[in-house]
Amino acid sequence: MTSGWARRRTRVRGLLPRCALAVLVALTTAPAAAAAKEPTPGLSQSIAADQPLATGRAELGAGHIDLGPRYVNDRWTLLIHDGTQAQPVWRDPDETVLRVSDAALQTVPDDPAYAFLGVDAGKQVYVVPQVQNPDVVWLGWNTQDPRVMQSIDRGVTLSLLGVDGPGTLTTYLQSGNFAAPEPLWRSVEPKAQPFWAEVNTHTHANWVFTAPGVYLIAVQVSANLIGGETVSATRMLRFAVGDGTSVDEAYAATADVPGSAEQASPASDRAEDGKPAGESTTLLLAVMVALTVLLATGLVLLLLRGRRAKRQAEREGGTSLSGGDR
């Protein structure tokens, strides 16, 4: 009996470190917010959580503007961050026209590196430049809204879904050290074109329009949240390219391209019901803590049962020896 108790006690003692290790691994591998990345060098900015959403129509033809994800009434969406005024605001793409004036006209260089534009060298195109020109709207994107940074897992995906206009659109990056251009979006491509933007990113690019007129551009922003959900929204951007293109025409334009209405994900709908993004992470941690408590309680009960069994075995052994003496 005593040797049996010793074996049980050894098994219990061996179980304790293994259980503790399992709990430690579970807790340390729980989902957590990714570390924020630094903004693109030379484009440092921060966005306050309380920056308002402006109402009413606006034509933006110069100054600093970004596309960016944000929550509006707990719904994930894509907005325009308007930094053209002293107090920056967010704007609804449906109520905003981005004006690309004739000041944006540039000549396509005679360089095979720019063949991806699909335009003959020497012809003029409208360019929203990567480096700011004070006479031209300066358009980029950011992932710097505070709630967005707290909720997304590492970054977002920005996708071009379609373009309707009199010419083509090409968006590309080019570093200042004579590096080759890096195309991101080309409207001549028939499929969606995604690229990745890390959390706390602020980037500007070159936007090339080959002809004046109204352009409707469907852009989707999607992300995985640290709580495990996936969110996505598609919005239509409106451009009036060229001085002769009217803003009214841009507002009135419609197109049969994806993104004519915002697409909200199921996770966004859940957020509207009052469940904040990332709630599932808190729930998971609570469940893990409860399991840890139950495990510890079970181990204590097992030890107590073992001690009672030992005492009973010792009493039975003593009785047996007394009977043998008689």
Ordered list of secondary-structure elements with their pairings:
Blueprint: H1 2-28, E1 58-60, E2 63-72, E3 75-82, E4 89-91, E5 96-100, E6 105-107, E7 124-128, E8 137-142, H2 146-151, E9 155-164, E10 169-173, E11 182-186, E12 193-198, E13 202-204, E14 206-209, E15 213-224, E16 230-241, H3 247-252, H4 266-272, H5 279-325
Helix pairs in contact: 1-5
What does this entry look like structurally?
With 326 residues, the chain is an alpha+beta fold. The chain has two domains: 2-30 and 280-315; 58-277, no CATH class. 29% of the residues lie in helices and 31% in strands. It contains five helices and 16 strands. Strands 1-5-16-15-9-12 form a six-stranded mixed sheet. The protein has a five-stranded mixed sheet with strand order 4-3-2-8-13. It has a five-stranded antiparallel sheet with strand order 6-7-14-10-11, with no helix packed on it. Helix 1 runs antiparallel to helix 5 (279-325).
